[in-house]
């Protein structure tokens, strides 16, 4: 039986970085994967395919360039699912190779099969054609999540779909109901609307993306409505069912409605497909955690302390399995930090407050730090400095007249408390604000330093002037 200093379960972003960190610290490490491919949700069903789909949609429809070339600008008249999928498959294959090479290069043992704890330090791995046992001193559980699929929704892989099965659909539906205005629902609603699909989004709360700054979500909602998306906010779905085939053919013909969503308010929505995206569910139930003494909640997720340690000291967890924010970006860093602590290597920064969020809707959104609502609730005095992309030469060059950057500035000491961006490059330029915040920088930093011209980064300077000018008049 092989013994390892560290054993990681799951090859998603959390697991990859945990395993490589152990190898870099000179430890023997194994990583276990139950699927047939590497990379978890990030590479196969989540981040990469959805972003590849978005890039393809943006490129093929010319969206984002319409401010420059006119509303009717379109690169390709008819877009097939093949156009979209081919881009995504190429990127996914490349990611598999990159992960494989990184693991090999660092001497991480990759063990294929489903991991199951047989004792506190003993794991059985059952693969497609073999089974083996390994022991480990420390474990990092990075098993991720799967889409929540409540029993009352008749999922069928054809027209009532989760975000996993949505990627397998071989046609572009003419109409789509999206249930859930969280990150997945919002991103796919935007992508599909860009492709010309008639989208209706139902969200139980009064706004999309509950955790983002309200001004930004209002701007997003305005843009989505302008692109033809119907938003049913503050509404919940009561019942979802397929229209029987006979009725469909008799009344609608092909491409017509196939699915009905009845809302609690009494409204009836019909569309060719429905995407159900109301959150994700853990997969800890069949890990054998009873044999270790680690408990999981009713959604099969794990609780950890600030060092990513479960209630059993040698067992750590990172990534989606520990809940919010459930991002590939944060999962990687959680995995790395968990492994460092497990192997007795302290790292300097345990701060999670500057973890950024990137939401790849159309338009793109990003944030770091506090929202206006949080600052108000916490009684922190601030002023908002705003730059509209209309005032930025690069915004004009890109044809993005809609974007904006908002910098929240402490009223007294002028430190930066939060940065919120919507529009082209939002997920990139956010890191400028993040770096300044990490170093305790003030709004004056943006005024007193020169930025390349023309860049979107210039928006920081304009926002800082705007905020400080307002403060001068307080
Ligand atoms: C549609 C969609 C879009 C997304 N877009 C973004 C985005 O743009 N940016 C972003 O930052 N995040 C995004 N995310 C979130 C991101 O994909 C996840 O946060 C990330 O993949 C979580 O990483 P993880 O390592 O925790 O788990 P996962 O990536 O889920 O990987 C877990 C791995 O563990 C394996 N596993 C599970 N149980 C066992 C077992 N018993 N034995 C062996 N192996 C096991 C699984 O097979 C899987 O490979 C998106 C998610 C979705 C669904
Ligand atoms: N760009 C990114 O970083 C990215 C992209 C996609 C997904 N993800 C991650 O994937 C995870 C899952 O995303 P998600 O969007 O499925 O979940 P979520 O929890 O973010 O959002 C679910 C939404 O559904 C709503 N809802 C719940 N029940 C409802 C009902 N019956 N009717 C109408 N609305 C209802 C909730 O109010 C909530 O807004 C998230 O944690 C997210 O971080 C990240």
UniProtKB/TrEMBL annotation:
The keyword NADP belongs to this UniProt entry's keyword annotation: yes
UniProt subcellular location: Cytoplasm
Binding site for FAD: 51, 320
Binding of NAD(+), residues: 180-187, 203, 279
Keywords, in A-Z order: Cytoplasm, FAD, Flavoprotein, NAD, NADP, Nucleotide-binding, Oxidoreductase
Annotated Pyridine nucleotide-disulphide oxidoreductase dimerisation domain residues: 356-463
Name of the coding gene: sthA
Gene Ontology molecular-function annotations: dihydrolipoyl dehydrogenase (NADH) activity; flavin adenine dinucleotide binding; NAD(P)+ transhydrogenase (Si-specific) activity
Similarity comment: Belongs to the class-I pyridine nucleotide-disulfide oxidoreductase family.
Main location: cytoplasm
Cross-referenced NCBIfam families: PRK05249.1
Enzyme class of the recorded protein, top EC level: oxidoreductase
Cofactor binding comment, as recorded: Binds 1 FAD per subunit.
Record PANTHER family: DISULFIDE OXIDOREDUCTASE, SOLUBLE PYRIDINE NUCLEOTIDE TRANSHYDROGENASE
Name by which UniProt lists this protein: Soluble pyridine nucleotide transhydrogenase
EC number: 1.6.1.1
A family per Pfam: Pyr_redox_2
GO cellular component, as recorded: cytosol
GO biological process, one term: 2-oxoglutarate metabolic process
């Amino acid at each position: 039986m092989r013994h390892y200093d560290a054993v990681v379960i799951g090859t998603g972003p959390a697991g990859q970085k945990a395993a490589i960190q152990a190898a870099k610290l000179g430890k023997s490490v194994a990583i276990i994967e139950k699927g047939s491919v590497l990379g978890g949700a990030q590479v196969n069903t989540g981040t990469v395919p959805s972003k590849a789909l978005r890039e393809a949609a943006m490129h093929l429809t010319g969206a984002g360039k319409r401010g420059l070339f006119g509303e009717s600008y379109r690169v390709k008249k008819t877009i097939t699912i093949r156009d979209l999928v081919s881009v995504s498959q190429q990127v996914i294959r490349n990611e598999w190779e990159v992960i494989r090479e990184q693991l090999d290069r660092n001497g991480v043992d990759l063990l294929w099969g489903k991991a199951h704890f047989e004792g506190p330090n003993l794991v059985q791995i059952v693969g497609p054609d073999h089974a083996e046992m390994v022991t480990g001193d420390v474990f990092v559980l990075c098993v991720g999540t799967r889409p929540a699929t409540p029993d009352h929704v008749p999922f069928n892989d054809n027209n009532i779909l989760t975000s996993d099965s949505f990627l397998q659909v071989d046609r572009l539906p003419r109409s789509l109901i999206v249930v859930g205005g969280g990150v997945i629902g919002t991103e796919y609603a935007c992508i599909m609307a860009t492709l010309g699909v008639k989208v209706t989004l139902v969200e139980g709360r009064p706004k999309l993306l509950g955790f983002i700054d309200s001004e930004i979500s209002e701007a997003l909602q305005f843009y989505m409505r302008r692109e033809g998306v119907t938003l049913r906010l503050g509404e919940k779905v009561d019942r979802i069912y397929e229209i029987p085939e006979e009725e469909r053919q008799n009344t609608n013909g092909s491409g017509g409605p196939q699915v009905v969503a009845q809302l609690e308010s009494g409204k009836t929505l019909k569309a060719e497909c429905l995407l159900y995206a109301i959150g994700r569910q853990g997969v800890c139930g069949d890990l054998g955690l009873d044999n270790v003494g680690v408990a999981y909640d009713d959604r099969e997720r794990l609780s950890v302390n600030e060092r990513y340690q479960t209630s059993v000291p040698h067992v750590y967890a990172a990534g989606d399995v520990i809940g919010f924010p459930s991002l590939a970006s944060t999962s990687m860093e959680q995995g790395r930090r968990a492994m460092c602590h497990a192997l007795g290597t302290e790292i300097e920064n345990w701060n999670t407050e500057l973890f950024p969020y990137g939401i790849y809707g159309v338009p793109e959104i990003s944030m770091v730090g506090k929202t206006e609502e949080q600052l108000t609730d916490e009684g922190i005095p601030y002023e908002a400095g705003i730059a509209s992309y209309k005032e930025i030469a690069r915004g004009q060059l890109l044809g993005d007249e809609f974007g904006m950057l908002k910098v929240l500035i402490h009223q007294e000491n002028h430190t930066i408390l939060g940065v919120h961006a919507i529009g082209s490059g939002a997920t990139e330029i956010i890191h400028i604000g993040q770096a300044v915040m990490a170093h305790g920088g003030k709004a004056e930093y943006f005024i007193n330093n020169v930025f390349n011209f023309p860049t979107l980064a210039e928006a920081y300077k304009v926002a800082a002037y705007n905020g400080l000018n307002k403060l001068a008049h307080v």
